[in-house]
Predict the 3D structure of the following.
Amino acid sequence: MKKLLMAKGAKSIVETNLGVKKGEQVAIITEPKQMTIAESLASAVFAAGAEPSIHILMPRERDGQEPPKTIAAAMENSDAFISAVYTSITHTNAVKNACKNGSRGIMLTQFNEDQMIRGGIFADYYEAEKNCKKVAEIMANSKIISITTPMGTNLVVSAEGRRGNALTGLVGPGEFGPVPTIEANVSPVEGSANGVIVADASIPYIGIGLLKTPVKAQVKDGFIIPESIVGGEEAQKLAADWISKKDANVYNIAEIGVGLNPMCTFTGSMLEDEGVYGSLHIGVGTNITLGGVVKAACHYDLIMTNPTLIADDIMILKDGQLML
């Protein structure tokens, strides 16, 4: 029964989000545990008159680890690609190079069968696109961006010279985007971030998910101070994971992102949580796919609620409400 119900979601991803056209070659990258999703997507690609191919990726050891060169080549030579994996390959050179070669991609990281049936996937992407592009445009090239929350986040960054990214869930040639998250983001200038981060909603990586206890960290000159990470079990798990990477760049403040999908809710799944309307996430680690220059061992997002976001004196969010 689930396979039948998943067909509607697969059709939406293939025809609306990816815009597959007749005769195109679409590479579907998946892991064994996501195979039912990959098969559903392949059926939708075939129904659209295009040619699907499924490439099974052995699970990566960590988020952000490059896929094998054979799979990277398939992505680069496709007209479009879908990454339906559990361990993220979003922030990789494989994605960057595929888009540079003119392909376009949809990222379905940690997607599950229920997400193919209900939730953020069924948003009106064309309507949400307007706000998404507007927020990205305002954050782009901002000299000063400030973020505060009632839980204690107080962070200041600079995005001077940086592009804004509108991840609308709708992609064209040379673009990639996650689904169902709809978000506008910018990658701060390396070394510019200072202040405090308090994530109170979710850290949907390494099995953490929805937070029982807020995770707090100090930021200095663009990096989280490892010793400053405090909170409950979730904070300990995050801190230990970063230490295990043995890479100073995992602490880099990589992204300021605003969730703009009215249909998303906090579930502990990355692409649902990041898209929750009016939420804000601070990405930490790799930023090469967002406009930065850092390639770290991972990229994790710390998600918070009720943010106030100001870019060069323009108030974008006030207590989680869009002010534009």
Q: What stands out?
A: Residues 2-17 form the longest helix (16 residues). The chain has two domains: 2-118, 125-322.
